[in-house]
């Protein structure tokens, strides 16, 4: 006998939009309405009544009845169906760690932290690639990527070695029929990230195989358009080196809110290719020109306490992932303004190419110095 969902709070938590999206993704069709209070859906050979609002007194009862009907049609447990309904507005990414450490479904606390951190790096790499399609993101990430990562949520833990479940929201598609111009719609950035993760992992696998045959790192560079970046290479390398798994498997179930249904994807990269992936990443980074970076912080040192025609200033960069002091040579009014910001303890911002010289950092080709208003 299958489990039934009878808890009113759980039934009330299923929104009408989730029910509609789920039925639509399964081939259901709304065929009628009841006095603007509920929709009548044709699903299989049954008609389901889905209220338009959770505020109706019989909402939980109607959803319970609909779940029972879906259970009979699909011959699946209501608990499994509920999971699918609650995930209908998300791309669901499951990252599975199979190793001796995870045989009983647990993982040490220290390795769990690494697992989460490098899984985040993997998804962030795809988010960066979807934004600008560059092969290398050394420090500052695109703002779209940062915003996307803030929207990703953890799903509940699942059985199967040790599985991290991530939920990436996907907004429903709105019809544009009836517009005067039949212009193809551009895919929103947020809907490109997880497909980029999928294509990037598959292309990374293929690039590693090809490079193992001819030792040409160009296979990784040419795959940048598919989502392969040094950041993705590093994330996968770290997952294997820090966790020492038998293998890491990434599976993706795409949201029903997408324009066209995408098949479930599973990608696993053989551990034997990790040295090739690591070496390719290192070589690409060595050969890549340093991109411009934004430096923002407070001036901690002036080459001279008196305004000069030119001089060095030291900026404590507060937005870098790691604390660093950056020395930049400024001339004329730029140096005078830097002195004013230093004496008034105001933050500054400047853009240029950050270079490393021993233990110190320098900034080449600097832009104009901007003095910010500190709070």
Write the SSE topology.
Elements: H1 8-12, H2 16-25, E1 29-34, E2 38-43, E3 46-51, H3 59-74, H4 78-86, E4 90-98, H5 109-132, H6 143-151, E5 153-154, E6 162-169, H7 193-214, H8 218-222, H9 230-243, E7 247-253, E8 265-268, H10 274-287, E9 292-302, E10 310-317, E11 324-331, H11 332-343, E12 348-357, E13 360-364, E14 370-371
Parallel strand pairs: 11-13
Antiparallel strand pairs: 1-2, 2-3, 4-6, 4-7, 5-6, 7-8, 9-10, 9-12, 10-11, 12-13, 12-14
Describe this structure as you would to a colleague.
- The protein is α+β, with helices and mostly antiparallel strands.
- The chain has three domains: 8-86, Double Stranded RNA Binding Domain; 90-170 and 189-287, no CATH class; 292-371, OB fold (Dihydrolipoamide Acetyltransferase, E2P), CATH 2.40.50.140.
- It is built from eleven helices and 14 strands.
- It has a five-stranded antiparallel sheet with strand order 5-6-4-7-8. A five-stranded mixed β-barrel has the order 9-10-11-13-12. Strands 1-2-3 form a three-stranded antiparallel sheet.
- Strand 12 and strand 13 form a beta hairpin.
- The chain is globular.
- The mean pLDDT is 88.
Distance between the termini: 63 Å
Strand order of the largest sheet: 5-6-4-7-8
Measured as a percent range, the helix fraction is 25-40%
Please give the domain count.
3
Mean pLDDT over the full residue set: 88
Q: Provide the low-confidence segments as ranges.
A: none
Shape: globular
Order of H and E elements: HHEEEHHEHHEEHHHEEHEEEHEEE
Alpha plus pi helix count: 11
Structural class: alpha+beta
In total, how many beta strands?
A: 14
- What's the gyration radius in Å? 27 Å
Strand content: 15-25%
The largest β sheet comes out as: 5 strands, antiparallel
